[in-house]
Give the backbone structure.
Amino acid sequence: MGSVQPPDRQAVQEVDVAVIGCGPVGALTANLLGARGVRTLVVERSATAHGQPRAFSCDDEAMRIYQQAGLLDEIRDATVAPPLVEYVNGAGRVFARMALSETDFGYGHAPLRFFDQPRLEHTLRTGLDRFPHVQLSLGTEMAGLTQDEDGVTVLLSDVATGQRRTVRARYVLGCDGARSATRAAVRIPLSGASYAEPWLAVSGDVPPDAVRVGDTRFVCDWRRPAFVSPGAAGSYRMEFMLRPGETQDEMQRPGTVAALVSPYVDPDRFTVTRAVVYTFHHLIARRWREGRVFLLGDAAHQMPPFMGQGLCSGLRDAANLSWKLSLVLSGVADAAVLDTYEIERRPHTVEMARTSVRLGHVFLARNRVTAGMRDAALRAVQTIPRVRRFVERFEFKPVPAYRRGLMAGGRRAGVVGTMFPQPRVLVPGAPGERLLDEVLGDGFAVLGRAGVDNPLGAWRPARFVAVHPSGTPLADLPDPLAGPSAPGGPDRVDVVDAEGVLGGWLRRHGADLVVLRPDRFVFAMVAAGGIEQAGRDLSAALGAPDGGRSRADTAGLAAAPGS
């Protein structure tokens, strides 16, 4: 798009970040920025909620991100966790299964949850009401943008009236989906492949006694592969591959839909809310940043649906970039920190997409002989206990880890660069057990054994979480609200390691302390006497522009302007 000229005699609105698109990724990004005090404008072309149940599933990492946005309870209460995923052949015989009810990756949530997208989007948009510095502009589209070294001038147009206005943002985030206008505006091409096999996606509502298949299943029928599953709030989702010669119009007819869904639900009591033919893609943008413009979610990458990781990958983008933007906008970090967004996220996204493709190859055997060989092979290898565990416990899913980026040493080393676990802990003055992230604060945190003397030093007001062994009486520990505090909350919180996970993790990795990033990835492993060096490492990673004064003391806030 060409240069942007502000309309005559109209004031230019100024914001820190303009988010283009208010689907789940854009809305979640705005919530994360809002929670950090960032002045944010969200632009959404549609004047009303999308209202279509497109995305269907999320994982434990996604739920942890919703938790960071302060929306966990609302979202969790509206989701359902399937206990089992089965792979069955055309005759309905199980040849592989994933025992999700027995799988725990340690991040505090079930490994898979199903949700209703319209309800999810409503929750995310309502969450924006918490922040007076976040504005949602519906019925508005981006008509063009121009960058300079200080910011981005964005021309917006009212979809109904055509009236135009100009916004000046320090950064622009393109969360506007697969046909991203933001990506087109900065001329970033996509690379990859689109798959020729079209699919029919059917969503609807059904009463419990009209459900004929109550489990989540990949139906690996070589004649017509399918996916079927009960969903949240009485919904049911089914996807069917089209056969050669079948047309979109034919497949979307009510009679065709009723015949396809009848093995799984009673078609007479199934209310269809969506029946759409689509083709999936394996595409990735050549780059995810052009100056002050960033791409997130489907604007940056699109992947096959077989692991349900498309939306989850976009949420990971938001969690990675939002806190870095906050640090840069508040002057705590140099703008070069933002380069680590793509450095960290791209390899993990590529690996997740490739795993989805490989899983699709298992799912999409298209002739009887190949399908029979697949079924026999998978049944045979699962007689080996370790292989069976690999399949049943979903261990083929890529772990949340970064190879390079904002971490001590700049590269993954052991657990540095991986996501830290989130067990439940006990906290003085708080009833019951709490998930760890609830006590870590919003910024960098240092977690370690309670016996380490005053580890923070110059790190104040970063939060130190002192871990006491399971069984320690809470009455023996100080109330975190009674001690000294900083703007980000108490600078020390004592917790009891209710499940023994934290102490065991530190012992297993030979560390007294661990430094955690705001997104709960491990920045550094530290011995008791090494916290000052970790502070210097953090200062170097953040690119302190004064060249000498450590910024580790302010990094703990991780709060943006206005906080």
User: Anything to note?
Assistant: The first helix runs from residue 24 to 35. The two ends are 35 Å apart (CA to CA).
